[in-house]
Write a structure and sequence with these properties.
- With about 525 residues, this protein is an alpha/beta fold.
- It has helices spanning about 5-15, 30-40, 60-70, 85-90, 95-115, 140-155, 175-190, 210-220, 240-250, 260-275, 295-310, 350-360, 365-385, 390-400, 445-455, 500-525; strands at about 20-25, 50-55, 75-85, 125-135, 165-170, 195-205, 225, 410-420, 420-435, 435-445, 465-470, 475-485, 490-500.
- The strands form three sheets. It has a seven-stranded parallel beta sheet. A three-stranded antiparallel beta sheet has the order 8-9-10, with helices on one face. It has a three-stranded antiparallel beta sheet with strand order 11-12-13.
- Helix 7 (about 175-190) packs parallel to helix 8 (about 210-220) and helix 12 packs across helix 13 (about 365-385).
- The model has no long low-confidence stretch (mean pLDDT about 90).
Length: about 525
């Protein structure tokens, strides 16, 4: 990342609520050094209650360079690291156990000399904390790790108010999380003056268990976890702080970081690091709250129906979240409910019905759900892609609200009480039959059979198999679902939507009837 990217990233971490932020490795390059100076010298960039953490190896000249980089800062964690495993000690450093301890103590004493014991008055304006990382702790015997840390602690002389941080990483993850947790527990029990020590862990993700290892380490006694947003780090990365935080959140424990606009955080990380967040990453992936599978969609739809009913009866969003397949409310992360259900060839009627309900605010009758789902699946199989809500609405209108060739078209519809008979309904229809206008009328009992009687003269001699009306309050509109059938077992659905109930019913009848006519014509041609 360049300086601008680093600054944007830092500002996001501050906004999220993180109070200890590792900002640089100042001795590594001039770019790192300059960025650190920019943070400190720019008023208002680092909040008063935020610790900036800088990293350095156990080399005295690089430690001095690192301390110079943070001159003038309010709160600084000086993070030095030294590998303590037998492999590194013998192969990389060619040092004895005693040599490692001597080096660690020497570096800590140098830090004391340059900070809290410095003759430079400016250094005393900074609140200093030291973090010592035993690199490759996972391959270090716990007894030796404690021996090193006891020597470092003695050299620094922490207090209860200003603890020393001992950071215990799985630099390369080589064990199951429970084994790492056992190591942490042994360390916590074995280190003296535990009240003056902050035990930190830094699990990597080589075995894919970084988050699990961090959680188990906390249960074993760790006080602090180091990681990155979405686990970006060396090789396979390290602990994903987003997952770690939201795992706590879903169990009712506040992580004290604000992830209420997770999409914004994802966008920032992707733009700054040029590393994409996996679409199925926990909580943050774009498919996390999406389901394509029919059984899942049906369960979620029923769950949301139950939720809406509970809210109607007075429950609030503060009530305990209970939803099939969704461990948390997507709204809590700034996600939208309408993105939950996605449709492809594997989807069932629940998903199709959900999207149609969200788009047109209608609840299809069950038989129509089943039939229309097959229409959508056929489209998905043909295209090979996900079917969008726009496409679903277009398919619904095409198959149930319009016909390709409108032989009969409704121009006007009126219904009133019949003269002289208050129990009867009088219907007047104005229609266009193949371009020729006609006026029809009929008198009967209920509206639907009376409209059908009026249409018999133009070939609508059908039986009503299903008839449902829905009122859409948000649009002040009636939706009529009508299924007509013939003696020859041909049946079709029609749907009408209009502010006028008579018009909606008439339109539904016309569509269903013309679809039956088209089917009869096709049957005659095939015979």
């Amino acid at each position: 990342m360049n300086g601008d990217d680093k600054l944007r990233y830092f500002q996001t971490l501050v906004k999220l609520g993180y109070k200890e932020i590792e900002v640089s490795y100042p001795s590594a390059s001039q770019t790192e050094f300059d960025f650190t100076r920019h943070l400190i010298s720019t008023p208002g960039t680092v909040p008063d209650d935020t610790w900036i953490q800088v990293m350095a190896p156990c080399r005295e000249e690089l430690i001095q360079r690192t301390i110079e980089a943070v001159r003038g800062a309010r709160k600084v964690i000086l993070h030095i690291h030294l590998s303590t495993s037998d492999l590194f000690r013998e192969v990389v450093f060619k040092m004895t156990k005693g040599d490692i301890i001597d080096l660690a103590v020497r570096c800590v004493m140098r830090i004391r000399e340059l900070t809290k014991e410095s003759s430079d008055a400016e250094m005393h304006k900074t609140e200093w904390m030291i973090e010592f990382t035993l690199e490759n702790f996972q391959d270090t015997s716990v007894e030796y790790a404690i021996e090193v840390c006891e020597a470092v602690k003695l050299a620094w002389e922490p207090t209860i108010e200003n603890k020393i941080i001992f950071n215990l990483p799985s630099t390369v993850e080589v064990t199951m999380p429970n084994v790492f947790a056992d190591q942490i527990e042994l360390f916590c029990r074995g280190i003296s003056e535990r009240e003056k020590v902050c035990v930190s862990v830094h699990p990597h993700n080589d075995r894919g268990c970084g988050v699990a290892a961090a959680e188990m380490a906390q249960l074993a006694g760790a006080d602090r976890v180091e990681g990155c947003l979405f686990g970006n780090g060396e090789r396979t990365g390290n602990v994903d702080l987003v997952t770690l935080a939201l795992n706590l959140y879903t169990h009712g424990v506040s992580p004290r970081v604000n992830l209420s606009n997770l999409n914004e955080v994802v966008a920032m990380v992707e733009e700054c690091t040029k590393i994409a967040v996996h679409p199925r990453a926990p909580y943050a992936g774009k498919y996390v709250f999406c389901t394509f599978t029919g059984t899942h969609q049906d369960a979620i739809r029923k769950g949301y129906n139950k939720l809406k009913e509970s809210e109607r009866l007075g429950a609030t969003r503060a009530s305990k979240w209970k939803m099939p397949y969704l461990p948390m409310d997507p709204v809590d992360l700034g996600r939208q409910h309408e993105a939950i259900v996605r449709v492809n060839s594997q989807s069932g009627k629940g998903g199709v019905a959900w999207l149609l309900k969200e788009s047109l605010n209608i609840d299809m009758p069950r038989d129509l759900e089943i039939e229309f789902t097959q229409v959508v699946k056929a489209h998905a199989n043909l295209s090979g892609f996900e079917v969008t809500r726009e496409t679903i609405c277009r398919l619904f209108r095409k198959h149930y609200m319009h016909v390709e060739s409108e032989r009969v078209r409704l121009l006007n519809c009126r219904a009133s009480q019949a003269k002289g008979n208050w129990d009867a309904t009088y219907v007047q229809l104005k229609i266009s039959v193949q371009g020729s206008d006609r006026e029809l009328e009929a008198t009967g009992g209920e509206l639907l059979p009376t409209i059908l009687d009026a249409l018999r003269s133009v070939g609508y001699d059908y039986e009503v198999l299903d008839n449902q009306l829905q009122y859409i309050a948000s649009q002040d509109t009636m939706t009529s679902f009508i299924r007509l059938g013939t003696a020859g077992n041909i049946a079709s659905w029609g749907v009408g939507m209009h502010k006028n109930t008579n018009w909606a019913v008439s339109q539904a009848i016309l569509v269903a009837g013309q679809k039956i006519m088209a089917s009869q014509l096709n049957d005659n041609l095939s015979n």
